[in-house]
DNA sequence: ACCTGCTGGTACATCGATTAACCACCCCGG
DNA sequence: CCGGGGTGGTTAATCGATGTACCAGCAGGT
C-alpha cells in the first residue's frame, strides 16, 4: 500500500508464502491443493484458506516442468485461403473446443501457417519445446503426413473428419459425411432439377472427395451425371469466377452446390448480377449453416454439420488422450440439409 | 530403433544430452544458444550442431520458470454475441497479431468468455498461474475495468481503439476513428439522401459512441438530424429486426448505416424481401470491409479500418512492453470509405 | 517396557534451463 | 620468475512445485 516504489510487476506469491502463512511445509501445501498424500482435513482447510487469502495459484511453468504437462492444446490454422476468416467453421470449432477445455484449466494455443510443411515444422517445434499436450488437426487430406508425424512425436492428437477410416490418431466427426450432400441432391431432383453442377473444395482435402463422391453417386442413382464439377480454393473470389464460368456453359446448370456458405452467397450474388433469379432460374445450396445464411435474400439452403459439437467431441477425445478423466464423447447424428429459400423449382419469368 | 518397448512418448533430449554430445557443460550450451557469456566461435558451432543433431530446443516450461517469461500472449474474446463468428474482425486481428508474434517465438493463447466479469477473472487466473506475458484487450468500453485491472496485476497489455485517450495501458488503433463514418455520411448526402438512419453497436462500447457521434455531427453539419438511431448487439438477428422496424417507420429512411458488414448484408436481404431495391429505394453502408461484401449483390459499400495492420501494431506494442526489442509500430492512415454498389441515388421504379 | 501400526507431517532430490561467481590457462611485460 | 589481465570455459545456486522416503508421536497389544 504505502510502498514508495511500486515495482513494475507485482510480486506473485509462491507456494512458500502459502506454506509460511499456513504454518506448514511446502510439501503439505502441494498435497492439500492436489488432494494427494496424507493431510488432515483441518490443515488442508488452513492451507486452502491461506492460498485464497494470498491469491495464490500454482505456477503453470513450475507445474509444467515438474509434471511434463502444460495443459495447452494447439490449434493450427492453415491460411493460404484464409479459412479462418471466410469459414465460420473455425469460430464454431473453437467454441466447441473451448467449452470442454476451459473448465478443465486447459488453454488453446492458436497458430496460423501458410502450408502443411510449415504446419509440420511448427508441431515439431512446439513438441520440442514441450509447449503443448495435444493438437487438433483440421482439414484431413489424402496422404496426410500429420497423423504419422504426431504419432512419431508422441503427441496426442485428433483428426477432424469422418470417424470411419483407420488412422494413427483418433478421428472425430459426424458419420455418414456424404449424407448431407445426398439429401441436397435428392431435394434438388425432387424440385425437378436435372442439370446440377458441383463446386468442390480443394481436391487434396478428404472431405472434398467424400462429398463429391456422394454427390456423383446420388445423381447416378437417378441416372444422371453432373453438368460440371469444379474444384476451388474456398475463396469468395473463386466462387464468383466459377459461377460465372458455369453460368456461361451451354446447357447452363439450373442448380449449383457449393462447398461452403460464403461461397454460396457469393454465387447467388453473381447469378443475380447476371440477371438470373434465385431460385426461379437457379437454385443454390451451401454448406455449413453459417448464421448469415438465415438472413440473406433469398435465405440460403445449406447443410448443417454441427461443427460445434464436433469440436466438443474432439476436445474430449484429446483430453482423454492427455490422461484426463473425461466422459467419452457422444457424437450421433449426421450432416443434415436445411431447406430455405435459395432452392426451388424453375419458374417461368414473370 | 530396435528398442523392444517403444514408450508412448518419445523421450525428448535435454540440455544435458546436448552438453554431453558437444563435450561441454550445460552452462556452455545455454550460453551458446542464447549468445550470452563468453564462448568461442568454435565451441558455439559445435554446440549448435549437436543441438540440431539431437533436435533439441530449450524446454519452454523450464525457460519460463527460470526467466519468468512464457512468450505467450492472451487474446480473450467475449462471445455473448458471437463476435468471433460473425465478425471478420477477429480473424483479421489474429492474422495481424500472429504475423508479428510467431517470428519471435511468441504464441497466442485464445480464450472465450461470456462477459466482462468472466474476462477479468480469467486474466487474474492467467496472471496468477504465470501463463502469459501480455494481453490484447478488444472492444474498449466506457469505464472499462480491464486496463486498471491489468495494470494492477502488472501485466503488459494493449487496448484496441482510438489511440488518443489517456489510459492505464497503451492504446492502439487508427486515429480519427470517426473519419470513415463522416465520409460515409458525406457520400450519402452527395447522393441526395436526407433521411438517414443509424444502427449502432452496443452502447457500452467506446467505438460505438465515437462512430455515432461522428455520424450525428456529420449530419448536423448539413443541418440534418438522423431519422432514427438504434443500438444493437451485433447479431444478424438484430440486423433483421431493426431493419424491419426502420423500414416500417413513417418517413422511411432512404439510407441505412450499419456497424458491421454481416449486419449490413442481412439488412440488404431484409430490404429486398420487403420488396425494396438496393440502392434504388434504399442505400446501405456497412463497416469492416469484409471480403464477402465485395461479391454479394449489390456489392457492399463499407468502411475499411485495416484491422490486420492494427493487429500487427498491437502485437509490436505488446512485445515492446514485454521487453522485446521490436521496431516501434507505425500506424498511419484512418478508416476509409469503400464505395461500391449498395449506395446510390434514389431511382424511380422502372 | 517394547514392538507394531497408523496418522500426519517434513526434508530433500528433482524437473530443465539460466546465470553469477569462480577458476584454469596462456600470454606478456617487468 | 612472477603478477596482471584476458579468454574460455565450469560449478553451483536458483526458479516453483511435486513426490518419495523418512520420521515423530501416539495408541494398543502382550
UniProtKB/TrEMBL annotation, chains A, B:
The keyword Transcription regulation applies. It comes from the Bacteria. One of its GO terms (molecular function) is DNA-binding transcription factor activity. SMART domains: HTH_LACI. Keywords: DNA-binding, Transcription, Transcription regulation. The keyword Thylakoid does not apply. Signal peptide: none annotated. Residues 331-350 are annotated as: Disordered. Residues 13-67 form the HTH lacI-type domain. It holds the Pfam family Peripla_BP_3. SUPFAM superfamilies: lambda repressor-like DNA-binding domains, Periplasmic binding protein-like I. This is LacI family transcriptional regulator. It comes from Streptomyces sp. NBC_00148.
Amino acid at each position: 500500500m504505502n510502498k514508495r516504489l511500486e515495482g513494475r510487476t507485482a510480486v506473485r506469491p509462491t507456494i512458500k508464502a502459502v506454506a509460511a502463512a499456513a504454518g506448514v511445509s511446502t510439501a503439505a501445501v502441494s498435497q492439500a491443493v492436489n488432494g494427494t498424500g496424507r493431510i488432515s482435513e483441518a490443515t488442508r482447510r488452513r492451507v486452502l484458506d491461506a492460498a485464497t487469502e494470498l491469491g495464490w495459484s500454482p505456477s503453470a511453468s513450475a507445474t509444467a516442468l515438474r509434471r511434463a504437462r502444460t495443459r495447452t492444446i494447439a490449434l493450427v490454422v492453415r491460411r493460404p485461403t484464409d479459412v479462418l476468416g471466410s469459414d465460420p467453421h473455425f469460430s464454431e470449432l473453437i467454441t466447441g473446443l473451448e467449452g470442454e477445455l476451459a473448465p478443465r484449466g486447459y488453454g488453446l494455443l492458436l497458430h496460423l501457417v501458410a502450408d502443411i510443411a510449415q504446419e509440420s515444422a511448427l508441431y515439431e517445434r512446439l513438441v520440442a519445446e514441450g509447449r503443448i499436450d495435444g493438437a487438433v488437426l483440421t482439414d484431413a487430406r489424402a496422404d496426410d503426413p500429420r497423423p504419422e508425424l504426431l504419432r512419431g512425436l508422441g503427441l496426442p492428437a485428433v483428426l477432424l473428419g469422418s470417424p470411419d477410416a483407420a488412422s494413427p490418431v483418433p478421428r472425430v466427426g459426424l458419420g455418414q459425411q456424404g449424407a448431407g450432400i445426398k439429401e441436397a441432391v435428392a431435394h434438388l431432383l425432387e424440385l425437378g432439377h436435372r442439370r446440377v453442377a458441383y463446386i468442390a473444395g480443394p481436391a487434396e482435402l478428404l472431405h472434398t472427395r467424400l462429398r463429391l463422391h456422394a454427390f456423383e453417386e446420388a445423381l447416378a442413382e437417378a441416372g444422371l451425371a453432373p453438368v460440371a464439377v469444379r474444384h476451388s480454393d474456398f475463396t469468395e473470389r473463386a466462387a464468383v469466377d466459377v459461377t460465372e464460368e458455369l453460368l456461361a456453359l451451354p446447357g447452363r446448370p439450373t442448380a449449383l452446390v457449393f462447398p461452403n456458405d460464403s461461397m454460396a452467397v457469393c454465387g447467388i450474388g453473381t447469378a443475380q448480377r447476371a440477371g438470373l433469379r434465385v431460385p426461379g432460374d437457379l437454385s443454390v445450396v451451401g454448406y455449413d449453416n453459417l448464421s448469415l445464411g438465415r438472413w440473406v435474400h433469398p435465405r440460403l439452403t445449406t447443410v448443417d454439420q454441427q461443427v460445434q459439437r464436433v469440436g466438443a467431441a474432439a476436445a474430449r477425445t484429446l483430453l482423454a488422450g492427455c490422461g484426463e478423466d473425461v466422459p467419452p464423447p457422444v457424437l450421433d447424428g449426421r450432416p443434415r440439409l436445411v431447406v430455405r429459400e435459395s432452392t426451388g423449382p424453375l419458374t417461368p419469368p414473370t
